[in-house]
Fold this protein.
Amino acid sequence: MTVNEVQDSIIEEFSVSDDWMDKYNLLIDMGKDLPAIDPKYKMKDFLIEGCQSKVWLHPEYNGERIKFTADSDAIITKGIVGLLVKVLSDRTPEEIIGADLYFIDRIGLRQNLSPTRSNGLLAMIRQMKLYAMAYKAGAR
Amino acid sequence: MKDISEIRADFPILSRKVYDKPLIYLDNGATTQKPLCVLDAVRDVYIRYNGNIHRGVHAMSDMTSEAYENAREIVRSFINASQREEIIFTSGTTGSINSIAFSFGERYVKEGDEILVSNLEHHANIVPWQMMCERKRAKLKVIPVNDNGEIIFDEYLKLLSPRTKIVAVTQVSNALGTIVPVNDIIKAAHSRNIPVLVDGAQGIQHGTTDVALMDCDFYAFSGHKIYGPTGIGVLYGKEKWLRELPPWQGGGDMVDKVTFEKTTYNELPFKFEAGTMNYAGAIGLGKALDYVSGIGREEIALRERQLLEYANNRLSGIKGLKIFGNSPDKIATISFLLDGIHQYDTGMILDKLGIAVRTGTHCAQPVMERFGIEGTVRVSMCFYNTFDEIDALGTGIEKVIQMFS
């Protein structure tokens, strides 16, 4: 699936119910699906600043694609980073850099799932794109 | 005392909905909501008589100056200071403490001197002293707290030394709600001729504060935490200190005579009020204090004790809920964690249920560190909250537990 196909399927999943509690439950499930990060990467180097809870994000580049694993000590945050991983992991650096993440607004993540904490969400996206740019520059 | 529905009707925001649910506002430690009379008072300034204070010959300037000085008198009487010269308007508690830390440091602190704060302090009563200590090469010493979140008095006494220049303590812990025995702290410091600053940000709104009785040398508080506007606060200082201390800011209105060779300063309190002050905020604060006096400070304290007791009973019945800060002397604030559930998750779900609480370290990281935690959920109640709201909080917390376990 392309980046946008994954985004569209997430939008569809979240549109099943209008009830915020259902959306949260979905998000909690997303967190559970998140590929486990190797505990040795749960260290300061992989901690994302700007979130109220701790978020670790680890990239692995095989010369073609970047695989992300992540974790958080808060379950909702883990779900949010899980969504981002679902959309952006196992992609080429170009795909990640060029991704227009419209699903965030469409499922109300920015306004409703993380009120005033969208800077934490933005910090996660920025970090993923930064890794992609670094690998792209390194590959050249 | 007015009945609760009359009180709530004074605060327009309390009847709003959030996510289609009635707002349950339990974050009063962060900021309080405003009664309509305060909003009217501020609006009135701009609609009827706005003019810059202490400067004009015209009627508007006169009326505004009079209202501003009247607000100063209301503050003086509210905290029972002996004279209006001892009341300085500032931008808030943070502004007050930064100013005193700067001026006091310039005047009295030398290399090797010590400043004493407690482990309960808000960052606003740590960082300004730390900055001053760095400048002056002085040392910041910390009074430890016990497992209940209370200051260990014997340790405090041991920390007082001939090098201690000032003790700066909070009246009430913002993170845990502990009421600190400031009277005893001040007595012990004074017996060694050490002045004391009291951070009243979380104390002033929860009962009667009498600076004459307390005998503190400095007292700081914020308008927005006592039902007044944001951006206005107060620094009380005993006249003898304020006379000796150098001003922290230069500018208009704080001067007597200015030449390029030498400037002499204005009288108290104007020496410390450089530039155009937030006079509309001060006037609003005066109205807020009048409102609080009208409700009755003893009545407020009593009602808040009832709320605390009710909430303690309701929350302590929830399995897996641990309260941090168990002093018998507390304001109506409960800091807690749910077993195995991150404070952020708890706060997010409560928010969706229309319940506003604070999560995180509450700008008091050293307190969190003392208890070996990274944050809590803080419920901070005040007199306009209801028992029904506490019931809704209890149900909300149970819902959170159900969702995350």
